[in-house]
Specification:
The structure is a homodimer of 352-residue chains.
Chain A lengths: L4 E6 L29 H9 L8 E6 L3 H7 L8 E4 L5 H15 L4 E6 L3 E2 L2 H17 L3 E6 L10 E4 L7 E8 L4 H10 L2 E11 H11 L1 H11 L7 H8 L8 H6 L5 E6 L3 E2 L4 H5 L10 E3 L3 E4 L5 E3 L5 E5 L4 E6 L2 E6 L6 H4 L6
Parallel strand pairs in A: 1-2, 1-4, 2-3, 6-10, 12-14, 13-15, 14-16
Antiparallel strand pairs in A: 4-9, 5-11, 6-9, 7-8, 7-9, 8-10, 16-17
Helix pairs in contact in A: 3-6, 3-7, 6-7, 7-8
Chain lengths: 352, 352
């Protein structure tokens, strides 16, 4: 295990597409969504254990979730739980973590990962991440992880690789945003399009110089902020400076501009659990393609439904096809699966 | 106010068609279903106040609901809350109350009523009940109350009167069970078919002699039971004898056999609140014919739905037409309104 390896887990999201199970008070990364006794965040840390000790784990989250992170990951060094005063998308988040890591370990080799995905093929995952880390240790490359698609998914971004080959670091041709169904089908057929898992591997010097080149507004702020690192002023300066960062994703800020982007593609049995249908695939299927979680779920003439109601006593559903029925903590959702991307809009707080 | 007037309120039902708002633990008659600050049982007692003092009110209920009745109606004489050890349908229930009343007041003139209906036209109701009581005071007749139908309802029984006239005691031609839609339409068109409100008016001597004639199995048991009335043996005898009664409705036991049945028909703005659609009519209608109860109900592309979720925080429903969505105390129902009669089957306890 290389002591220069650091894992940055981004855990600030509010998981609004999985409402009502995921809420701003307790987003999905902190929930035992699969019923395995561990939250998605805890599973993410475990997944990286073969490549990184607990001392190399960093979590970037929102102010309000710091307590939850500490409770769920009591072994992580407290100064490696980074609290964003406001959300500013992934580029400032990654910059902040990178500047922190650089100060501690200028030779750091970093994996940035979401906190809410699952990977069923652990060994393959370890192998892929190790290969990526080997590559970025020796080069100035940025390596992304591509997932071999098994369906024409329209909810994910895609990476177009120069090669259909798996388990090997190869050059990226282009990043593609969430496609429509026809396009997704052509991606699936082509063989060299992979789902973008949102995992990035790079050395700290690489990402810092790439950010300096393509996101100077952010790096200027980070340089000023870094002057306060380790001083009594740090928290105050963070609250002053971080909100001034441009709100931009790492994809737009760096990935689409940099010329040294690579991908290592693999079949990892990966899911981002980002929506009800992707989360639903991890619930066992019963008659008529229904997937249910709950103590007493009674489906009459239902087909292809996802019912996630583990807070309830009894649930009776009659005559629904391809619907999501979810209940948590007094919030309730009944919505066609095809409209799942709009769940976050339907459940958004009302304008005052 | 005639001191020989007694009201028998039948409050033993479990309201299974209004699950999950109505449950065996707290059936609908004990619930403030309309959000007016009073349960249906309390509203029933109030409705009879112009014709009967509190000392004339009797409630027959199940053992398990006695405490609830006492709490909701603290002024009722305790010995006028009658507890059936087991449910035996309406004939034994009415017989038991009649034997009790006969002992207290042999000249009693009685109204038997369900506990879970509502009547919006109170004055008309008082007038109708008073006319019926006047009639049964002077005759051996049995008077039923007929409701002028305003739609071809298939969920109610009908009374075929000899006359289309209202507000007058006239002879009954026949009782009709719940019809199919075509038949219900012809009833509505004919003018002399009325909904059977399940309200019966008779003198105690009339009902006792009618029961003796047509339900001797039950009256034999009542005579034996009556020997214990007012003794320390009473409860024990009740538990022994009452369960031996034939399980039969008053409609089958007496109404269909007796020759002296009358009806007084009226437009009372009555509803038995027996099902979600009849209960739903008392919820204000919003856009697209939806009727909702709940702190934050959000309907997207919904039409003609009844949403009753006052225990929840937020409810999002997308794309349902003519559905019931109800939640109470951890139980949840999502069911087409047209299947509402099956709700009690869907939610029935599982066979062990």
């Amino acid at each position: 295990m290389n002591t220069h390896t650091h894992i940055v887990i981004m855990a600030g999201g509010i998981g609004s597409r999985l409402w009502p199970v995921s809420t701003p008070e307790m987003p999905k990364q902190f929930i035992d969504l699969l019923g395995v006794g561990k939250s998605l965040l805890q599973l993410t840390v475990e997944r990286f254990r073969p490549v990184c000790g607990i001392s190399g784990i960093w979590v970037v989250t929102s102010d309000r979730y710091v307590g939850t992170v500490k409770r769920q990951l009591p072994d992580i060094p407290e100064d490696q739980i980074l609290a964003e005063p406001v959300p500013r998308n992934t580029a400032p988040c990654i910059a902040y973590a990178s500047w922190k890591i650089m100060r501690k370990d200028p030779d750091a080799n970093i994996v940035v990962t979401p906190s809410d995905a699952i990977v069923m093929r652990q060994e393959k995952f370890t192998e892929v991440i190790s290969k990526a880390l080997d590559f970025t240790e020796k080069t100035d490359g940025i390596v992304t992880v591509g997932i071999r698609p098994d369906r024409p998914e329209t909810g994910y971004g895609y990476i177009c690789s120069n090669s259909a080959e798996e388990d090997k670091v190869v050059k990226v041709n282009a990043f593609k945003e969430k496609p429509d169904l026809e396009t997704a089908k052509s991606y699936l057929a082509s063989g060299n399009y992979f789902w973008n898992a949102g995992i990035f591997v790079w050395s700290v010097s690489t990402i810092v110089s790439q950010l300096r080149a393509f996101a100077p507004q952010i790096t200027g702020i980070m340089d000023r902020l870094a002057e306060s690192f380790g001083t009594v002023e740090e928290q105050k300066r963070l609250e002053e400076l971080f909100p001034q960062c441009e709100k931009i994703s790492i994809d737009y800020a760096v990935m689409e501009k940099s010329s040294s982007i690579y991908v290592i593609a693999a079949d990892l049995a990966w899911s981002d659990l980002g929506s009800w249908s992707s989360a639903g695939q991890h619930i066992e299927q019963s008659d008529n393609g229904n997937r249910t979680v709950g103590p007493d779920v009674r489906l009459v003439d239902c087909e292809g439904c996802i019912v996630h109601t583990d807070d309830t006593k009894m649930v009776v559903v009659k005559g629904l096809k391809n619907y999501i029925v979810a209940e948590k903590n007094g919030n309730m959702l009944i919505c066609p699966i095809e409209d799942e991307q709009k769940v976050k809009d339907y459940s958004a707080p009302k304008e005052q």
